[in-house]
Give the backbone structure.
Amino acid sequence: METFLAEVTTPAWNEEQDAGRPWDEAVATLAERHPHQRQLIEAYRRRWPEMLAGPIEDTVAVLEELRATRVRLFALSNWSAETFPIARGRFPFFDWFEGIVISGEVGAIKPDARIFQHLVARYAIDPGTAVFIDDSGGNVEAAARLGFIGLRFVDARTLRRDMVRLGLLP
């Protein structure tokens, strides 16, 4: 399995779907390159919902605290437009966001400035007063270059401490 994920359904291949490539096209193209892996590639797509892990409860708890303060909440995610609806239907906390921008719908993935600019324009966000949180240092750096207050997500405890430091939580 590790070899299949590292050498066939690679992170770079997955990013193409996150950037808007249709899954049917992605599976067909990859199966042409790896015909001996066709069944596994097709199963990877068909059984994707089974690979979706559950919520990270302590992080959702911090999100819930922020929600209670009535601070504006937005999500900006690298995600396939075809698979995000599965997650959205499974996790009620997605409804807590005032707006959600999904890379597969926009056609650009973080750290590309275009996806941040789309978020800003669509929801009238002032980057200078907005906090961007991500587990990828490159994404945080990209947001900071655009004027956001960038925070690297490490764990829920650190996130909560950062929110207190910024005056967003008591």
In short: The chain has eleven helices and four strands. The two ends are 45 Å apart (CA to CA). The longest strand covers residues 74-77. The first helix runs from residue 2 to 7.
